[in-house]
Amino acid sequence: MLKKNTRRNENREKETLRGCRFNKRGSYIVEASVILPAFIITVFLLISIIIAIRTYENINYGCAEELRLEMAKNAIRKNMPALPVSVYTRVRRENRNLSNFKITEYKYLYKENGLKDLIKISFKSTIDKKNPLGEISTLKYSGTMVGRAFSGTYYDGKDGGGKIVYVFPDEGKKYHNKSCRYLSAYCHQVFLNDEIKRKYHSCPNCKSHTAAMGNPVFCFERAGEAYHLSRCKSVKKYYIGISKDAALEKNYRPCSKCGG
Question: What percent of the chain has pLDDT over 70?
Fold first, then answer.
């Protein structure tokens, strides 16, 4: 009887141990099914953050490089509209994953804290990305850069880029002269200053009186009496003035109607 009881106890212990092994395996499977998807989602999120950081670093580098060039060129020519278009064009060209990029403030050759000939540019950008759950995450980045225009010599005294021509930065690959009929239906982007305020009144629809000095505004120079904000429904397409050399560098070609 004692031997039989001993064998029974041994068998029970073996069955108990076998059951524990199966329970451990089952718990491992359950834990893996819970943790593994969360781990994969975390990895994808980290990858998207790394891509965003790389994009923002690239924006900073592009803005800083264009500001440096504009400060250097100031010694031989003064062209207020040049920097915003060069920054906008470069950032858009080099960062295709940006959902939105805007120049929010631009001040050219101003004085502050005892320094003069300062150049300031501010921007905002947005990236809309789908995360592993299928939802869209919005990442925003903004910045401001300030530099002082160079007063020495540059480019061995070469010319400052030629005459001013006009381009549509958001669409179109042609440059136009000021008298081109194609420009008459669209507004001109300028930067708010005292002269603009004297010449035009603020738009009551978009409340452009809230714009700060140096901010981009839009005017219909040939048939308009108000200046507008970019969100105004009247602003559908706009043009800006840049040097002819800058237009050629950015692959714009002469307008077939006016010849540029």
Answer: 73
Residues 69, 116, 188: CA angle, nearest 5 degrees: 60
* pLDDT tens, residue by residue, 27-67: 556 565 666 666 665 666 666 677 778 888 889 988 988 88
pLDDT digits (tens, 9 = 90+) for 122-167: 999 998 766 555 555 788 889 999 988 875 433 333 444 567 888 8
pTM of the model: 0.47
The residue ranges of every structural domain in the chain are: 38-157, 164-254
Closest residue by Cα to residue 132 from 242, 196, 39, 231: 39
Query: Tell me, what's the pLDDT at 158?
Result: 40
Q: Which residues contact 9 (CB under 8 A, 6 or more apart)?
A: none
Query: Cα 228 from chain centroid?
Result: 22
Q: How far is it, in rounded angstroms, from Cα 104 to Cα 223?
A: 26
Per DSSP, the residues of 71-106 read: HHHTTT---TTHHHHHHHHHHHHH-TT-SEEEEEEE
Q: Residue 177 burial by CB count (10 A; 0-12/13-18/19+): exposed, middle or buried?
A: middle
Predicted pLDDT at 152: 45
Distance CA(63)–CA(79), nearest Å, equals: 17
> Which 3 state secondary structure label does DSSP give 230?
coil
- Contact yes or no for 155/68 (Cβ under 8 A): no
Note the Cα 184 to chain centre separation in Å: 29
The CA distance from 239 to 260, in Å, is: 14
User: What Cα–Cα distance (Å) separates residue 55 from each residue in 48, 49, 50?
Assistant: 11, 10, 9
